[in-house]
Amino acid sequence: MNTSTPQLLKNPRHEAFAQAVANGEYADAAYEAAGFKNHRSSASRLLANASISQRISEIQAENAELSRLSREDVLSYLTMIVITPAGEVTPASLLCQECVTTTTSDGTTCSRIKMPGKIDALRLMARLCGWETGNKAERDAANALGGVSELIQRIRTRK
After folding, report:
1. 143 and 86 both lie in a single domain
2. Which of 56, 69, 97, 114 is most buried when burial is the number of CB atoms within 10 A of its CB?
3. Which residues lie below 8 Å from residue 33, measured CB to CB, with a gap of 6+?
4. pLDDT tens-digit profile of 33-54?
5. pLDDT tens digit string along 79-130?
């Protein structure tokens, strides 16, 4: 982990703007949140400022270091969703979002387990791997697919 002290921007409103953008705000909203009057081109100009864009990158890097899940962790979980048959998901499984157990009049118990959707997981995987960006997907599909195939193989061998 990086132990150097972050270099804050000298202008507190610029720092507030950089923090807001780095944390997911649109430039216009971040501009107003930092105390500036709403003016669309000014927000864009501030965003293009080299020291501010560098600070945004620093904050994003700090946030990434603090994140508990890596990209591979997320892809691994999404892959598990895709390859795990619904019948293998138990109430104790990481994939179990909800479990409703009922008992019939003859004493038989029945569990209904809800797991994340496979199609949604595939969509997220495609987005994370850059597959849904047209030409980039065509260029990178072979490389990315190889990486996902290896990931799927590792998950299967853990079972």
Report:
1. yes
2. 56
3. 16, 17, 20, 25
4. 999 988 768 898 999 999 999 9
5. 999 999 999 998 889 999 998 989 989 988 888 999 999 999 998 988 888 7
Nearest to 77 by CA among 114, 112, 118: 118
**Are 77 and 144 in the same domain?**
yes
Q: Which two tokens stand for residue 159?
A: 């079972």
